[in-house]
Amino acid sequence: MSPDQITFLKDTYPQFWHEKLESVPAGHFNLVASLLHQCDLIAVDNGGTEPWVTLHFERLDDDDGLFRAYAAPLADFRKWPDGGALALIIALQFFNERQKMICEVCGLPGDRRCISPDFCSGKTEKWNVD
């Protein structure tokens, strides 16, 4: 990811940020941001700001360098809001599976490499947090 993307995620989601995420491709920025945002919403749904989970990331050697995200609860599941655990599982699954379907350069759906290599060749990263 670009330094601006990294700074944005570190500043917006410091409770979930991990240094391993710095090597996630820039095109997968939205996947990371969506996962961190969903984990943040789980706490908000319960009227708090403290994280309910801790996230762990590992780079897979057997899957061409994709990342795998895992979560561990920090709060007893009996205290979770309705649907919170299911929302977490869906967010993790979305992040883990969609990396295979999103271009690592431009972030468009299709494949890990853009369906139109001419579109991505020489393309500078573009993203907007405003």
Features:
130 residues, alpha+beta, two-stranded antiparallel sheet, 4 helices, 11% strand, elongated, disordered C terminus
Structure, explained:
- The protein has 130 residues and is α+β, with helices and mostly antiparallel strands.
- 35% of the residues lie in helices and 11% in strands.
- It contains 4 helices and 2 strands.
- It has helices at 3-12, 29-45, 84-98, 117-120, and strands at residues 53-59, 67-73.
- The chain has a two-stranded antiparallel sheet.
- A hairpin with a 7-residue loop joins strand 1 (53-59) and strand 2.
- Helix 2 packs antiparallel against helix 3 (84-98).
- The two termini are 18 Å apart.
- Mean pLDDT is 84; it is low at 126-130.
Gist of the model:
With 130 residues, the chain is of the alpha+beta class. 35% of the residues lie in helices and 11% in strands.
Strand and helix order: HHEEHH
**DSSP helical segment count:** 4
What would you call the shape? elongated
What class, by secondary structure content?
alpha+beta
The main sheet orders its strands as 1-2
Radius of gyration: 15 Å
Determine the strand fraction and express it as a percent band: 5-15%
Distance linking N and C termini: 18 Å
The share of residues in helices is 25-40%
Number of strands: 2
Largest sheet: 2 strands, antiparallel
pLDDT below 50 for ≥5 consecutive residues: which ranges?
126-130
What's the overall average pLDDT, rounded? 84
